[in-house]
Amino acid sequence: MTSFAEFIQQQLGATDRADLGLLLNQFASACKSIGNAINRAAFTGASGVSNTDNVQGEHQKKLDIISNDLMIGWTQWGGHAAAMVSEELEAMYSLPPELQRGRYLLAFDPLDGSSNVDVNISVGSIFSVLLAPDQHRAARAEDFLQPGTQQVAAGYALYGPSTMLVLTTGQGVNGFTLDAATGEFMLTHPAMSIEPETREFAINASNMRHWETPVQRYIDECLAGKEGPRGNNFNMRWVASMVAEVHRILMRGGVFMYPRDNRDPAKPGKLRLLYEANPMSFIVEQAGGASTTGTQRILELQPDHIHQRVAVMLGSRHEIERIVSYHRT
Ligand code: AHM
Ligand code: MG
Asked: What pLDDT, on a 0 to 100 scale, did the predictor assign at position 280?
């Protein structure tokens, strides 16, 4: 079986992106450490909330902060990172001056789905890698405002019944499972692909009364089942961890939606473009799925803020095409 390090070496070692391979190994180490911190939280006092809020005004969990520190700690020392943006940090993170800088901009959500962490339900980490536009000067926050099509790598770790790392460098999607006996991620899910058809959807239905008409129509038709216009029964799942939902979709198809709604026109959805929607959209598209706001391909959006939010609808291609068509009418 191929290890993550071997796989990366085979994919990037002989290219002009060998340094990206080294950076990706550091992400893998960070994810192992975060998984360990989650596993051991009940013993180490790392469960529960901290006394701080993040930039989104959300209460931080202690594990949010620990995961953020681990992600920065592992990825900053190897000489490949130029700067970082994290869900947990308001401003761009610049590397300490004594550390060597590289050419990659890292954006991450170190602990996604953290409302689930204290109830022992799957959570994850998400990361996106861009190239710094000008490597001769220090990186700036504006450098991160590149469309998702510019990503050179994206991945997530899923801390579930087993710990997995799923990665794309633009050459398909591959999944690795952590072998606890050796501490290595091993290639267990090569060339992952998303079924174009599905009868399973994921949406937080408690927001139903706020949805816009096309989303309401799509879900109504799914719920109408065999007797409705779709002529099929649909199943619903909602983990409230995007990583777990996207992973399920990679494994057996499905649609995940966190749409914008009518509550606050200034708030275009809940999820963040740079470190949630873009990396997940890159992975989903590389696996043959599709990803949209309802009206635009997510990967083509021009970001205007590092913590920008966006509506997200992704998964099985034929269903996403249907949802897009409902937004046109
Ligand atoms: P987080 O990054 O603060 O954990 O928020 C993102 C998460 C996603 O993983 C998940 O899809 C969504 O928020 C769940 O939202 P809700 O609590 O509305 O169900
Ligand atoms: Mg998140």
From this structure: 99
> Within the chain, which residues score under 70 in pLDDT?
none
pTM of the predicted model as reported, rounded to 2 decimal places: 0.97
pLDDT score of 191: 98
Q: 111: CA distance to ligand 2 center in Å?
A: 7
Pairing relation of β-strands 200-202 and 235-236?
parallel
Instruction: Decide if 243 contacts 110 (C-beta within 8 A).
Output: no
The H or E element that residue 19 is part of is helix 18-39
Q: Which residue has the tokens 């190994």?
A: 25
Does the beta carbon of 115 sit less than 6 angstroms from any atom of ligand 1? yes
- Residue 303 confidence (pLDDT): 98
ipTM confidence:
0.97
Q: Which fold has domain 200-328?
A: D-Maltodextrin-Binding Protein; domain 2 (3.40.190)
Correct CATH for 4-189 of 3.40.50.300, 3.30.540.10, 3.30.230.10, 3.40.50.720: 3.30.540.10
> Could you tell me which residues are beta bridge partners of residue 131?
104
CB of 319 within 6 A of ligand 1: the answer is: no
Q: Tokens at residue 85, please?
A: 């943006």
Domains 4-189 and 200-328 fall in the same CATH topology:
no
Domain ranges of the chain: 4-189, 200-328
Ligand 2 center to 276 CA (angstroms):
6
